[in-house]
Amino acid sequence: MPRPSVKEKLVEYAESVFRRKGFNGASVQDITSAAGVPKGSFYNHFQSKQELAAEIVRRYCDATDFSMLDAGGGREHTALERIRAHFAVQAERTRATGVGYGCLLVTMASDSPTTGEEVRSAVQEGFDGWTCALATLIERGQHTGEISSVRPARDLAAFLIDTFEGGALRGKATDDHSASILALDIALDALRA
Predict the structure, then answer these.
(1) What pLDDT, on a 0 to 100 scale, did the predictor assign at position 98?
(2) How is domain 58-191 classified at the CATH fold level?
(3) Full-prediction pTM beyond 0.85?
(4) Which of 27, 60, 139, 182 is the most buried (most CB within 10 A)?
(5) Is the pLDDT of residue 187 over 80?
(6) Superfamily (CATH) of domain 6-53
(7) Among residues 92, 95, 126, which one has the least CA distance to residue 109?
């Protein structure tokens, strides 16, 4: 079994450090210590902490499971059921990494005013991709009459993400892993046509 590269160790351990400390609270020394590599090796792989953080955000977003939202997934379920199933997977992902640390995307978003353009852009791309994937399914639900058409699908998708992530922030503060799904269920009820 090949040993992980120094770069992969930095990426793997930096995600945990960023989750615990946020972007601004995490130092390069914290990251290299967690990864068990010399501090100088960091700069062999990344020009800055911002570059590493953007890489982690992109990888986190790329690993998001959109299978319930795509055109072929879950046809036996309604659009609202598929949306809820998607968010349940996201809630489990957050629970598995520690509710107290919350969603990496939100952690980085909350620090984005001071993280630099590279991280802010990666976070924005992550939210845009998520919104687009949700909006496609919401639009189909609007066409079938299942989901209210009073607002554009993209606005509703952003609303659902904001509601879910707001619940996740509450869960982070209260150590309640069900807060994000409870908030989402209320929002989904409001979207019914």
Answers:
(1) 65
(2) Tetracycline Repressor; domain 2 (1.10.357)
(3) yes
(4) 60
(5) yes
(6) Homeodomain-like (1.10.10.60)
(7) 126
